[in-house]
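User: Can you help me understand a structure? I only have the sequence.
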Amino acid sequence: MGNQNANTAVILDYLRTPFTKAVAPNSGKPPGRLADVDPLDLQVPLVNALLERTGVNVGDIAEVITGNVHQEDKQGLNIGRLLVMHQDCNLPDDIGGSTVDRFCASGIQAIGI
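Assistant: Let's start by predicting it. Here is the structure, written out as tokens:
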């Protein structure tokens, strides 16, 4: 990172997971297309692709902050930390992971942090 201060955050690249409209459980409508997909199955390949695309040294990463629109079920267990700890994720387990839940503002709030 050259002359960057250790407390300087930088954005090198970005990707986002796919999404579909949510469907209320008792609405009589079929569930959204991704209802049965584990959110980590969407996020782990995304993080690994970002690491590959940017060539960033994982030793320079202090924390992963994940924006998540509405945490429930598997997503409600601090998905940012679970992402880092996932066996297929190319990040070391000692990197911190946290999750921001601000509904539609989750992504922008994560960037702001």
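Now, to help you interpret it: The first strand starts at residue 63 and ends at 67. The helical segments are 39-54, 79-85, 106-112. Let me know which part you'd like to focus on.
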